[in-house]
Amino acid sequence: QVQLVESGGGLVQAGGSLRLSCAASGRTFSSHTMGWFRQAPGKEREYVAGISWSGGRTYYVDFVKGRFTISRDNTKNTVYLEMTSLKPEDTAIYYCAATIQWSTIVTAATNYRYWGQGTQVTVSS
């Protein structure tokens, strides 16, 4: 019901910025809580940020709080992750994901039903 495609990744220097986009298809997009996850080489996938279906609530893990901003535009079926002050440890594949409809903000990957293919973010020293 929901297909997700991430874009906007790339290679940047430490301290730089990137804006990731997640384009969604499906008429129920506005009813899904959305999240961003990332997975670094040799490490498990971890939660980064989430936004409620209305856009009225957001949540960030402590490591990215104050540096990353999640937002959504339901008229464009798109979720964004604005990343600033990037650090080498932010290097990972970033995934966009959607929960079932009308979910609260949740952090466990098992609560997300739909996933994008990921976009690579590499931060050099």
Q: What does the model show?
A:
By secondary structure, the protein is an all-beta fold. The chain is built from no helices and eleven strands. It has strands at 3-7, 10-13, 18-25, 32-39, 46-51, 58-60, 68-73, 78-83, 92-101, 112-115, 119-124. Strands 2, 4, 5, 6, 9, 10 and 11 form a seven-stranded mixed sheet that branches. The chain has a four-stranded antiparallel sheet with strand order 1-3-8-7, with no helix packed on it. The mean pLDDT is 95.
Amount of helix: under 10%
Can you summarize the main beta sheet? 7 strands, mixed
Distance between the termini: 40 Å
Mean pLDDT: 95
| Rg on CA atoms, Å | 13 Å
Give the count of helical stretches: 0
Low-pLDDT segments, ≥5 res: none
- What structural class results from the helix and strand content? mainly beta
Describe the secondary-structure layout:
Elements: E1 3-7, E2 10-13, E3 18-25, E4 32-39, E5 46-51, E6 58-60, E7 68-73, E8 78-83, E9 92-101, E10 112-115, E11 119-124
Parallel strand pairs: 2-11
Antiparallel strand pairs: 1-3, 3-8, 4-5, 4-9, 5-6, 7-8, 9-10, 9-11
